[in-house]
Each structure stands twice: as C-alpha cells, then as structure tokens.
Q: What sequence folds into this?
C-alpha cells in the first residue's frame, strides 16, 4: 500500500467547536476539569474557547517532519537553537494556546522566537492574534500542503516570504520535503540539498 502524499490529507480528520462569551475564569475551570483528558486541545482568545478533537496521526506526521527538517537545517548551518516543544503559551486573562512546536534561536528565552502550528481543521480563533500579546517574533502555519510565515511588526503580524532567522532558507524547499511520503527519505534528501 502506497503512503499518501501529505498535501492530500483530508481536512475532516480533526474537528473543533467554539464557545463564545466564556470568561477567563470559566476557561480555567474547563481546563482544570480536563486535566485527565489531554487529548483535547483547548485554545482561548478574548472570550472564545475553542476545543479541538484529539490530534490525528496525519497532524503528528507533518509536525514531526517539519520540526526534523528545521532542526536538520539549523545543525547544518551551525545555528544554535533550543527546541521548546508544544508548551502552553499564556497571556493571563486574554489568551492561551499550545503551538505544535516552538524554538528559541541563539539563546533560550522565556518565550520562543518561532512557533509552528499544523492546521488540519481550521478553527474560529485567529492564530496570529493568539500569539500577539506575548510578542512571538514569528508564527509559522502549515495548512493544505503550504507553509506560511508571519512576522511581528508594529501593527501586528504580516505575512513574510522568508524567515528573519533563516533568510537563506526557501520556504518552497521546506514544503517540497514536508510533502514527501517518506519522512526518513525526505529528511536525508533535504540534508543533501542544503549541503550543496
């Protein structure tokens, strides 16, 4: 059986619901009530609580492939980085969300420089607004086979064609290898290409 191309993943494998008019206190009560059910993913922004169904295998495959490619690139270029993982980023009373992956570049800081979100099912919360109060410099989204980067500017997040942290890394190159059906082969081929 042939492995499907990652860009052909059906967007219906994960589901989300949004509840509006939820206070921060109500959100924290729901969050504490679900401590034993970690499969559900909660996101909160200005009175909207989004509950995402358990993360799919497709979601995890894309997340781990993108993270592996990015880490391979940073090692090849001798860029010091700290993988921060998917810990919850919170602005008390305003926003709470958990990226799929995050990195500090150069030095480890309280908040990461880059957060990455893999979107299989779009929710109702603006993902860039979620990270705005924490002033995360770059937010990356992978959705439907495409990678989009947003950089923090004075007026909010603006889409960018290249990362401020990796100006010589073409986003199209990452897309090419994220969308390969075999993760191991994709990473090996990517490393060979960035070495030339």
A:
């Amino acid at each position: 059986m042939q492995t499907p191309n990652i860009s052909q993943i059906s967007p219906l494998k994960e589901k989300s619901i949004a509840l509006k008019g939820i206070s921060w206190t109500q959100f924290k009560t729901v969050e504490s009530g679900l401590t034993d059910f970690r499969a559900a993913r909660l996101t909160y922004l200005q009175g909207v609580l989004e509950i995402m169904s358990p993360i799919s295998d497709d979601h995890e495959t894309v997340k781990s492939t993108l993270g592996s490619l990015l880490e391979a690139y940073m090692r090849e270029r001798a860029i010091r980085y700290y993988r921060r993982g998917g810990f919850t980023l919170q602005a008390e009373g305003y926003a709470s969300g958990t990226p799929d992956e995050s990195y500090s570049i150069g030095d480890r800081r309280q908040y990461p420089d880059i957060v990455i979100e893999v979107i299989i099912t779009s929710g109702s919360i603006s993902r860039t607004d979620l990270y705005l109060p924490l002033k995360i410099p770059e937010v990356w989204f992978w959705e439907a086979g495409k990678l989009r980067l947003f950089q923090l500017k004075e007026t909010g997040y603006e889409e960018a064609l290249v990362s401020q942290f990796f100006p010589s890394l073409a986003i199209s190159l990452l897309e090419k290898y994220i969308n390969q059906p075999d993760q191991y082969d994709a990473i090996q081929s990517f490393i060979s290409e960035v070495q030339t």
